[in-house]
Every structure is written in C-alpha cells, then in structure tokens.
Amino acid sequence: MLESNSRNNKKKARLAVDIGGTFTDVALELPGTATTFVTAKTPTTPRNPVEGAMQGVRLALEQSGISPAQVSSFIHGTTLATNALIEKKGATVGVIATQGFRDILEIAYERRYNQYDILLDKPDMLVPRERCLTVPERMLASGEVLEPLEESGIDELLAKFDALEVNSLAVGLLHSYANPAHEQRLAELISAKRPGWFVSLSSEVSPEAREYDRLCTTVANAYVQPLMATYLREFANALAEEGFDCPLYAITSGGGMTTFETAIRFPIRLVESGPSGGAVLAAKVAEQCGLECVVSFDMGGTTAKVCLIDDGLPQTSRHFEVARAERFLKGSGLPVRIPVIEMIGLDRLGRITVGPESAGSEPGPACFGRGGERATVTDADVTLGYIVPDAFAEGRLCVDVNAAEMAVSRDVGQPMQLEAKEAAQGVSQIVDENMASAGRVHAVECGKSLNARTMIAFGGNGPLHATRIAEKMGVSRIVIPPDPGVGSAIGFLAAPVSYELVRSHYTTLRNFDFVGVNGLLRRMSEDATKIVERGANGQRLNEVRTAFIRYKGQGHEIEVPLPARDLTENDLPQLVADHETAYRAQFHRSVPEMVIEVMSWSLTVSTEVQPVPPILRTTATETVTSHQLREVYFGSQGGRRQASVFFRKDLVPGNRVEGPALIVEAQTTALVAPDFEAEVDGGGNLFLLKTSA
Amino acid sequence: MKNAAQSIDHQVMWNRLLAVVEEQGQALIRTAFSPIVRECGDISAGIFDEQGRMLAQAVTGTPGHINTMAEAVKSLISIFPVKTMQSGDVYVTNDPWLASGHLNDFLLLQPVFLDNKVVGLTSCTSHLVDLGGQGMGPEGSDIFDEGLLVPPCKLVDRGEVNQLLLSLIKANSREPVANEGDLYALISCCEVGAVRLEEMMREFGISDLGPLTEAIIATSRKGAVAAITEVPNGVYENALTIDGYEFEIELKARMTVSDEEILLDFSGSSGCSKYGINVPLNYATAYSVFAVRCLVGPEVPNNAGSLEPFRVIAPEGCIVNAQRPAPVAMRHTIGQLMPDLVLGCLHQAMPEKVPAEGASCMYDLPMRNVPNLAPGATPFAIELAHNGGTGARPMKDGLSATAYPSGVWGSQVEVTENTVPVLIRRRELRPGSGGAGKYRGGLGQIIEVESSENQPFLLFLSLERMKHPAQGRDGGGAGAAGRVAFQSGKSLPGKGEAEIPGNERLCFETPGGGGMGHPFARDPQQVALDVRRGLVSPENARRQYGVVLSQAGIIDSEGTSVLRGSC
Hints:
The structure holds two protein chains of two kinds. Chain A is α/β, with parallel strands linked by helices.
C-alpha cells in the first residue's frame, strides 16, 4: 500500500515558474497534496531569464528534496512577450496587405487618443511604411474570391523584404477571416522560398472582422515570435539538461495552459500571462471558501490588476484597454491593469497627481536610498507607518523612513501646506480612489457591481492596500491566501489546459444561418480540441461557447453564452432572452422589438478543473495580542493609532486579531484597518472583516 | 487641518465626477445606433449642480458640445425650474440654437434626487440618424425644411416614457427604429450619471454639491486664467477664405487677449448662405474655444470655471451666428474650420506653439441607394467619415489621415462591406499631399468606392478645402486641396447631391495639412526617408525641398547644397 502510494506520488510534483519584471517566483506543489507549496523568489535575470528561473527551480527542488524526474508537469508564465512589446525589443517585421490597403496600420482609426494634445504622436505601430507591402488579390465579405491572388510578383516582394532585413512577416489580407485561402497560399510560397522566416497569418492569429485590429494583433505576434521561439526552446533545453522529462506548458492570458509548441506559434497569447495566474488563484480560493462573487485584487511592484470572478469564472474583458501594450491584446485580456509604480506630485491646479513616470524598479522610491528622490506611493505608505522597516522584503531592502517623509513633504506637503503624514494620507486616498475607480469601470464593462463581493487580495502590495480600497469599493470582506507574494505562480498550478478561438460570422437571429454557424462552431471545436488534446494527457474536456451579439445598427457587442452543441430553432428564444437580460444588466434598459445580429463566436476547450475541497470556516476562538506596537496614521478622522505587529507564520487557524494591526510575512504585509478584524481559517487564509461597530 | 481633509475629499470627488462622465460617455457610445455616434463618439455627457453650473464633462470624440451643453442646461432649467422637477423626469430638446447647432443632436437632462431633493443634474447629447425633412445635407432652404424640431419638453415623466413624443419622433424619420434606440441609449446615459452621483454623495456624506462646486470652479478658473496670463496681451486679427456653397466665404476673427480673458469677435465675417452650411453661434463657439484651449490651459478640465474666461461674440446674421430660421444641417462643415481661423490669431501671439492649417473639415460621405431601386438590389444608407492631414506642428510633422479638430473615427473597410452593398477598392495615404516645410503637413488619403451590385447610388456632399487648401506658416507650403471625382475622370463639386452610375468608381482624395517653416530647412535625411516611404516623390524632394537623391535614394550632398544655396 505504502509502496504503491509512493509509486503514484513519484510523478505527482508540479512546478510553476512566473518570471516578472523584478522577481522570478517559483512554486512547487508537493506530491500527494494540493495545498502545500515550496516557494522561492529569485531576482529576474533580464539578459537571460532562463538563468534566474533555473536558479529558483533548483532552490525549490533542494528545499523539498524532489528530483527533476519526479516532476509531472512544468508550467511557465512570463512577462517577456509583454516587455518586448512595451520596450520595443522585437523582430524586424514586414507586413503583406491587400493591394490598395498599404496603410492600414498608419491610418488606423484616424483618431488622436488625446483630444487636446496638439503635439501627440500616434502610437508606434512597430512596422513603418517602407516595410508594409501589398499583393494583388481581393476577397469579399462573404468569403468569395473577387480577384485571385497574383503570385507572379512574390519573388520581387520577398527581395524587397530581404533588402529591409525583415525576418518575420505579418500577413493581413482583407476579409481573410471569411476565407483564409490567399493567406494560406502566401504562407506556403514564403516557407518554400524563405524557409527560415517566421510567418504570422491574420486568419490564424485573430480571425475577426476589422482589418486594423486584426493586423495589429498579427503584427504583435510576428514581432515577439522570433524572440519567444528562441526563448521557449532554450528553456526547454535547459530543463531537459537538468533532468526534467515532463510536459511543458505556458500560461496564456486567458488563464489556461497551452503546450510550448502552440505558444511558439501564437506567442501573442502569452502576453499578460502573469496577471491571469492571479485570477486563477483567486478563482480557486473563492471555490475553497465557498464564495460566489469575488473581486480579485493583485497589486505588485509595477502594476495592479482587478478581476471579477462569479461562480469560479473570471470575467474576460475583450475590449478594455488601459495600458499601452494592451492595444494589441484584443480578445486576450483578462484582468484590468493599472500602473502602480507611480510618481506623485501636484499639477498646475494644485491637485495631487499620481502618474506613471519613469516606471520601473530603478531608481525607485526615495525610501530605498537607491538614487530615487521623487516621492512615490511606497514613500507615502512608509510615511504613514504601514511598512515595518526591518521586516520589509525579508530585510533585503533598507527602508529609510526619513527619506520617505522628506520626499512626501517636499513634493506634496509643503506646496499644499500640509504636514508629511497628512500629505501622505492624501496621496493614499487618491491612489486608492484611482484603483477603486478602475475597478468600478471594469465592473460596469462586465455589467456587474462591486459591492457585496469578497475581495481576494495578493501580490507584493495587495494586502497592504486591500482594506482601504475595499472600503471605496463598498466591499466589507477580504481574503488573503497563503503565500500571497507568489500568488501568480501558485495560480498557474490550478490552471486547466485550454484554448480559445474567436471567429467572425455574421447572421441575424431573425434569419439565422444554422448551417453556416453550426458548421463554423463544429470546426472551431475540432480545432481547439486538437490543440488541447496535445497537452491534456487524456483528461476529460469541457467546451464553452459564446456569441457576440448586438442590436442591428449598434457598433458594440455583448457576450451571450451558448449551449455546447448544434443550435436549432428552439434555442433562439433563449438567446433573445439572454441577450435582453445581459443588455439590461449593463445598460439599464433594453430596446423593444429590435432586430438582433451576431458578429462573432468564441469557443474555449479546456480540461476539467478538479473540484477543490472546501475549507471550513473555523470560527475564531482565540483573540491574540502582540507586544510589538507601531504607530500608524489613519488620516484626520482615524488619527494616530498604535497598531499591533504580528508575523503571519505565528498565527494559527482559529486566531483572531483586532485592528489596527500589521501582519507581516516574507514578501508582503497585510494592513488591518482600525475598523477591521482578521481571522485565520482552517486553510490558513487570512480573512479581514469589517467590524459592524 | 479640517480644510486639508476637505480639500483632499474635494479632489477625490472631482476625480470621481470625471470618471462618472467618462463612464456615461462610454455607455452612450456602446449602446448607440447612429454610426456617427458609435464610430465617431459624437456625444457629450455632463454633471451639473442644481443651479446648472457644469462640474464635469466627458472628453469624447468631438468638441462640438463643449460649452454648448453648459449653456443648454441653463436654458432648460429656466424653462423648467428645478423645484418643479420630479424623480424619474427627463427633459429633451433638439432645437439647434439651444442644443448643438443642428436638428440631429438631441440633448437630454435629468434631475438627480437625494432624499427627495434635487441635488444636481445630469445631461447628455447624441446625434440621431434622421429627423426627416431634407435629411443630412445642405439643400434645405430653412430650418423647417430640415426636419422635426422638438422644443424643450418632457421625454420621461416620473419614469414613464412619453409615448406620443416617441411616436412623433419616429413618424418623422426615415430611420425610426434607430432613433428610438438612440433615445433609449440617451435615457440610460442620464440614469447612469444620476445613480453614480447619488452614490458618491452618500459615500462622502454630503447633502449638497455647493462647496464641491465652488472648489472645482474656483480652482479651474484660476488655472485657466493662469494659462491666459502666459499669452501676451494684445489684439490679433486673422481672416480665412473658404470654398462656401453659392459664393466664397470670408471668415474674420479678432482675438483680444487681456489679463484675465480671451475674447473672440467674428465681426466682418460673410453673411449667411441660402444653403444649410450656416452655423449657430453656440456651435461656432464650441470649436473656437476648443482650439484656443488646446494651447491655453489644456490640462484644466472643462467646467463652468475653466470655460468662463473664454468669450465669443459675433454680429447676428453673420454665417457663424446664423439666426432662425436659417438652414443649419451641415453646420459642422464651417464649424470645423473655426480652429484654423482662431489659431491664425493665436499664432501671432505665440508663434512657437501654434500648428499650421490642416484639412480640418472631415470628409463626411453619406451615401444611399437611389429611390427607384432595381429589383433584387439591396437598399442601404451609410455615412462614411474620413479625414485628411493635420497641419505641421512646431517641431513636428503633421499627422496623416487623422482627425482634427473633430475626433471622428474612420470606418473600418471590413465592417462597411459586411453591412452595405459597397466595395472599398482602395484606402491609402495620398502621396505628395502634405504641405512642404521644415516640418511637413500630414498627408490626406485616397479612398475609392463602388457599388458591389453595380447599382447607381446617391452621394451627398458638404466638403471644404477643395478650392482653398490648408495654408502653411512661416514659409511652409500649402497642403493639397481635396478632390472628388469619378475614376473615368469627371470631377464633382464639393457641395450638393450627385448620382453615381452603377459602373463608376468614386475617388475621394482628402486634403493635406499645411507645412511649417521653409522646406529648405528640412533635414535632408527626413526628406530621404519620406521618399523611401513613398510620401514625397523624388522630383518634389528636389523641387520643393532642394534635396537631390540618387536612384537608390542616397542624398547627393553636393547637389543638395547647390540647390539649397542658390535660394
């Protein structure tokens, strides 16, 4: 019995690696358990991220005594693709478009993103006009060929790309989502004539109508592909050399895993995979704790992410754009990102401004004494007393409280005639309001509300800001899971193998094209299943289908769920009703008797997620106290208070802590506001609860 | 320290209000049926205190509603006093002289209640597709020809939509269903704002907006005045000759900058046209103030305080202060040229900051099937909107095919072809159209359209800069003039209706922006890059810029200095 157990366990350890901008997080799930992790945090090695990752991997293996051969799967998330886009460090991409449409990228939507800024530059589309070339061909919206692809000029075209030193091509022909034949033929010709080149087809990367959006996504794919292909292959080699022989997965922005092989074809799907790990973690914690409606709040060193999760399902927001890089991410976005490392100051009107200026960890906040002088949000937190200096970042970083106070005082306090703590409190309020606003707007976008939700907070800064942001969102209960500092990596371990496809096919509900739609969905199902099966190891698969529906004449669609089977006449009344309900939830009023049309369809195939055993909320029986006190400032109403300082590792299930308190752990600190109390449940989750008093 | 806390609360609430109006704006754009609204963001949303003072306004696609909404709300509450309003009431009007310059723009106003008392107002404006009459075109001879005018009245009475009014609006429209949908979208937009404002007041425990209003207005006014102080005092004059319809039009502006105010006076401008290109003063004001504010205090949000120091006057009956019952349907044609007029004044005061003239007037291209549709042909109506180049900026080239001053979005070809029976055969930058200069004007674009069913169709034009292109500044050249023609050669005039034969292809060439500074001062490397990108021809590199290039595009320095030196 024992022997067979150990044999089973031999291959049961699972390993997750999350490479972020500053740190690489490793989480190892030990055999036989789903809740015990060995974690490691190592500095990211930007020049060769594999190096830092392997270091963390070895560290975690050593600590646990597990050998590489005992690891049954390896899951990887990285911000490398995102960074390549943001820092403009990708390939030299060439574009092939339909003749007459050379300038799709530059013309874009003909719009300036800031109405009042006369001096603005349009976003850099990564491919200048000299590298955008065209071929004679034309498809119709119906998918019929109007003009065949003219192949005779292809050699001359490729010679031009040679001269421009292009090595990755993005092909975006008009209406290729309706008929990809010309794009596919071009890919054949190119791979025969230039075997080493990367080719991204818009009909594969993002087969949706709207040529600019589709081409942007395709260009972004082509831009990061050579880099990501090399990187993922190197990583695979390094793992093999180390003795790993398990399947390798990459986390996609949709919160699923995909094989390295698929990731190399569509690296654009990896952009923003860090945040999605957090959403998966939050979904799992919600399930464990039996929470139906939660909002996850993941605040790290450079960005914060907000995501709504209902009944265990994270809300995807396909069109929400907040960050520069997300312009490329239509159809791939999961949580909302908000830049965090931000400089604070006053604008010409004397209003406090918090803006991303020289974002990044260098030179950083004034209190770190690494050359940063301007006040940052972290300086405000230090000034308020929220951060225990010697315990911060496991003592690796020295926190200079005076430097923080001076910076806050100089940049905000003196001009507003406020003392440092008052000024810091003001900054805090504005930051928390910005985050809460972003959360509210995200909620509107999803047609949901925030109040009555439980917040699940993690990331390096999440537990510190959670109580205050929760109050602004009208949230009165917060859960902080164990190991919140490496939340994304732990989330990866709970992600299913999955793949999402989105295709455009127009129909109205009145004259529903059953043959066309059912045929399309069946093909999508087959395609996605094939991709998922490669990594599924025979696990059972689930399929989720969605239609993007609008009233005829509108320009924006809303998502309506579909049954995972062929549609019949009998399904239409339900579709109409579901659309009305979703519409009313989002915009208060539906429009009577309007024709309804469908633009696009999405389909996700994923492995079934194992149900998580529920954790009993042990009622807290023992109120614990601490002798270590620290003065914390809670604004003009809250005043100066002595907060008890606890170390999270000392707290056990059933413990209760009254606010104000600081609960310190290796990579973060949880602030329990005066009107909150904290309880530890049976799974080691920290519950922060607003007290009724 | 109470004041400090209050001042921070005010800042937080101000941020909240700005977020709420943006949320309202997004809700309106997402639910709108009118293409110009959903693709171009031709909307506005604002929050007001109970006295009608504007606290926040959404920054959206078109500036045509800046301070028109602020004035409209004041007019409405003088007709319907706040104390007579009930919870769930919504008021409406599309009177061009009250709302936004033509009948298509509907303005709604809803009171916000907190504990049975009106504490504030929310308002929004959006463009409805069709109000009957002659439709969107300059052919009406007076406002009565242009369609249905809804005087200020109640659209929703204590939560009940006025069905009589709704059916009147539908019965007088070629697009009744879209109109109804858009009215519903406007109502939801008001409701969203009202709910959010009430939530905010409860959260911060305030029962009246008074102190917040005072803080926002005082801070903003101070910010705007501080920006005006940086503009040298003086009187600056400019004139602009534009194409017009039956006659060329002279637009005149006199800008007086004093310590605390900028006054714009359009005296001396031409009288009204007999066609619907006349502009009510509220709309001319919106575009004029917008342009000045782009350079003078752009970071101060629009509200009653920041707009107060900018005043606009014009004699009644001139083309930018058209009086009832003048036809005004296409008021944006000239309205969008107001920035070029007033920036010409501002350039004299701050030459290092003001851009050259641009294409400015959007190329709005309404097309529909002929009335006697052939059997089997698909009926359709569509309004494509595209832009030319913007003027060169100080230290930077102009932007190609980009909207300014409007924020109209160009339609995507695939969306157009999926919804109507037309084919777009080309949409590309128009080489050589940017005005030459040390900094080059933005390029226009070439758009070719034909019927996908070989059917004739109608086109309604009201375009500018076909005879009078965008001028450069400080030695910079003019951008190319706009052009509309059949592929077979025949050119069309910029204004009026035309029938396009089923076998013809229509070619639009949008205008380029003007250049800035002498072209010989342009970095030869930039000229070579423009040639390599196909934006400037090698001949023009030589002729306009004095840059000689080899066959391979390499700069011939000697040849270049000979050419440039000889000038």
